[in-house]
Amino acid sequence: MEKNLYKNLFEKLDLGKRVVIATVLDNNPCNSNSFQNKILLTQEDLIKYDKASSFYETIYEKAKYALETGNLQFVKVSEEKTYLIEPYFPEPNLIVLGGGHIAKPLVEFGAKAGFSVTVIDDRPSFANKPRFPEAENVICESFEKCFDLINLNESSFVVTVTRGHRHDMDCLRKILKYDTAYIGMIGSKRRVKGVMEQLLSEGYSQEKLNRVNAPIGLEIGAVTPEEIAFSIIAQVIQYRRLFDRTTGTIKKSKTNWPEFDRDVLTKLSEEDNLSKAVITIVSTKGSVPRKEGAKLLITSNGELVGSIGGGCSEGAVINTARYMLRNNITYQIERIDMTGDVAENEGMVCGGIMDVVIECFNF
Amino acid sequence: MEKNLYKNLFEKLDLGKRVVIATVLDNNPCNSNSFQNKILLTQEDLIKYDKASSFYETIYEKAKYALETGNLQFVKVSEEKTYLIEPYFPEPNLIVLGGGHIAKPLVEFGAKAGFSVTVIDDRPSFANKPRFPEAENVICESFEKCFDLINLNESSFVVTVTRGHRHDMDCLRKILKYDTAYIGMIGSKRRVKGVMEQLLSEGYSQEKLNRVNAPIGLEIGAVTPEEIAFSIIAQVIQYRRLFDRTTGTIKKSKTNWPEFDRDVLTKLSEEDNLSKAVITIVSTKGSVPRKEGAKLLITSNGELVGSIGGGCSEGAVINTARYMLRNNITYQIERIDMTGDVAENEGMVCGGIMDVVIECFNF
């Protein structure tokens, strides 16, 4: 059952959806298996269950906050019960349509900014891996057909920088069918105006066209291809961190991207019969190598997957997790104090404190 | 005399000054040597000679415009006279104080954006060339003493991203003594407020402190070191392209950086006895490899320095220049038509038209 939950998690993420997994950690020995205490929620679920029963009210409230901010919530609601609300965000994709002189630095910057980058051009000499070593995917296909090969969704940031505004317009017609995180189109004010008027006359709504950032990029007076790429990536980051999809405006507080341990989650979704303990960081203080949400998994046959940052103190928690697996203990909260671990090293102050929750998944 | 003009040009540029060289191209055979017809002007000269005689009025007006916009001016004022107004801008320097996790991507981005980058830290493990391969200079020195080793001027963009706000504050005290193009300091709003209050109490004027961009960078919600570096470089580019020093505000039209052929200008400043012809692009139309201001020099002993973009049609102008050198012709205006040179190649339309002026410097 828990395996299905994590399979479901991956399915939602592949669709570009943000997900929350809410866990009720219960001291009551009658609810001894944390498996039954996990629920997966998406934005759509939260809207649907807006008027949830008061029993779930706190969970839904915290889940909403986690989806918005990317911050993990660890809330003790009673002596018996603690809620662990973990947000999981899909990896943001940067789709660059056109492989010319602006795409070259943009693809590089996109990868540096943490995007999985796809670049598309219909000319083999522009759409090839050696030209774009930082791209996850390089697709050589017409701008007409390429949309069948990519997956545009709420986590897609789409930039059209093709060699001509006719191609840009063709792309735009396709892109506007999808619900994407960002759309930007290159072009002078005059050219952009022409494209917009054309699309309006074809029946595209003004509201839809307003989603297009054109002329593209923040207004920094960019001249060179590199400068234009900087202005674009700055705007894409702004949309990733500050754009509020519900209001369509730039908000004040920035969205965090939660830690994501793919290997751990994959392991949890696998059809083996191993018992597993998962250590999750739930709060940190000071300088720590990994943040809230980072995970380390220990299987009953001794395998270790993921990391909560290493250090001497980590060993003690691993031993605790092993003890719990042997003795069928459901969950436990532990503190890892690393303030003594690392000395002041060339001026970089290291060391911090983190609280972790250890959950056992017994099969 | 002309050699001194070009030496003077380099001296001014080294001080971070923008320079205009105005040339009067005269058909009157009495003024046969263009050497006597060149004048070098800086912003200060233009302010000083604001009320210039009407004889120079057009030159001063055009020179002002060239200094502001970076655009070369080529103006026929009468049947006999044409003015060539060439702006020369110093290479912009990015000075990064602190060699930590933000400096790492910032130095790389700075070089990509066309800055000559200097990075400074007092820790050898942070201030070393392998860590910053893209930096022009890596200086390992205390933040106290390093200012004696660098040249801060109107072309300097200074970023303080040291490991502590005490160091940032020490740096700021030094930087504020200079007239720089940009100052930015890292830090949270709270921390920045503390630094500013401290410096105010030490007697620094509010006006001076207002020059400091702190918290640094455009507000894009940057979280990771790379994102912070993107937000900083975007702001630095904005200051380079759009900041109006005279009004202290962001302007609408962007400043161009004129082409700069160091080798050609160096050759013109040299103490040899060679006659030289210089071909300068004065206007372009369509897709051309180099822009207004680009230069190609031909010496009387056949040496070629610099480039106006190559292509078959370039050869004809070189022949004209050689003929002029042999026959003591002062200057000539020529058109280079490259529209037939390069065919449409994989969708990239090449070819354009450019006007050049050929000037002979006879010794």
TrEMBL record, chains A, B:
Q: Tell me the ranges covered by the XdhC- CoxI domain, including all copies.
A: 276-328
Q: Which residues form the XdhC Rossmann domain?
A: 94-236
Q: Mind telling me which Pfam families this protein's record contains?
A: XdhC_C, XdhC_CoxI
Look up and give the organism this protein is from: Clostridium thailandense
Q: What is this protein called?
A: XdhC family protein
